[in-house]
């Protein structure tokens, strides 16, 4: 439960960026209360770009997450997504031009795209069968909590105080989630079987030691992880080194102009 709650702080952070524009845009468009002192009120076109940049970042984030999740792991992919959120709220604090705020929304969308790739893989791989559905639903819940947090902050706090409050979420995520283990399934897939066992023990709250009696369920789960990782590794090796018909592929004969006469 702890790891699932911590990783979904990322969803709360993404939700705050999503909901921030609802309170911020009317203020930014105001002629007498705009916080962009050097620029003044933003135009409708600039407001549209600030709103739409979130989805542009989300598109980019899904590709980035897809490239990273099998290379560096589910945990580290999710953890890296916290940095765009920190940068996003830092831009709000420094902004004196609408371009900064477009960058804020783009970075928030980038983090959101990465999280929607990494978290649905990470949480089911560490959860037990009995609570996998419950823990999997936390992603949507966390995003909704983040949106509501941004709404409440916008209703009661000054413009830049909203950013300071929302900045605490990704900072807390980066500081706490760093210490969580990688998912045991991913570790087994990359042939790190001892690390996979330690990770599985951590998530099943089973201490490491010969004096600890392992449950049958734990032993079965560990065996499935190790067998699945070896099978995938062997399959990748065969696909790399062998032709589909298990014969060395031969170079096809080259065609000549006389073959068509």
Automatic annotation (TrEMBL):
The keyword Cell division does not apply. InterPro entries: MFS_dom, MFS_sugar_transport-like, MFS_trans_sf, MFS_Trehalose_Transporter, Sugar_transporter_CS. It is a multi-pass membrane protein. SUPFAM superfamilies: MFS general substrate transporter (SSF103473). GO terms for cellular component: membrane. It is found in: Membrane. The chain crosses the membrane at residues 48-69, 76-94, 106-123, 135-155, 161-180. This is Putative sugar transporter.
């Amino acid at each position: 439960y702890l790891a699932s709650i911590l990783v979904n702080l990322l969803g709360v952070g993404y939700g705050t960026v999503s909901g921030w524009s609802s309170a911020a845009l009317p203020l930014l468009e105001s002629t007498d209360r705009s916080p962009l002192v050097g620029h003044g009120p933003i135009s409708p076109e600039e407001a549209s770009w600030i709103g739409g940049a979130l989805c542009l970042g989300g598109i980019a984030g899904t590709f980035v997450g897809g490239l990273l999740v099998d290379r560096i792991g589910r945990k580290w992919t999710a953890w890296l997504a916290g940095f765009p959120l920190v940068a996003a709220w830092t831009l709000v604090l420094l902004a004196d031009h609408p371009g900064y705020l477009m960058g804020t929304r783009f970075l928030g969308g980038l983090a959101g795209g990465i999280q929607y790739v990494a978290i649905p893989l990470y949480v089911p791989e560490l959860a037990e069968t009995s609570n996998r559905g419950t823990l999997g639903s936390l992603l949507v819940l966390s995003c909704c909590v983040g949106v509501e947090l941004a709404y409440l902050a916008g209703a009661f706090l000054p413009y830049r105080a909203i950013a300071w409050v929302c900045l605490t979420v990704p900072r807390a995520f980066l500081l706490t989630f760093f210490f969580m283990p990688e998912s045991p399934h991913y570790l087994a897939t990359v042939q790190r079987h001892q690390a996979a066992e330690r990770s599985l023990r951590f998530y099943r709250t089973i201490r490491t030691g010969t004096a600890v009696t392992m449950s049958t369920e734990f032993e079965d789960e560990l065996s499935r992880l190790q067998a699945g990782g070896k099978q995938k590794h062997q399959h990748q090796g065969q696909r790399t080194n062998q032709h589909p018909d298990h014969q060395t592929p031969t170079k096809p004969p080259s065609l000549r102009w006389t073959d068509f006469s």
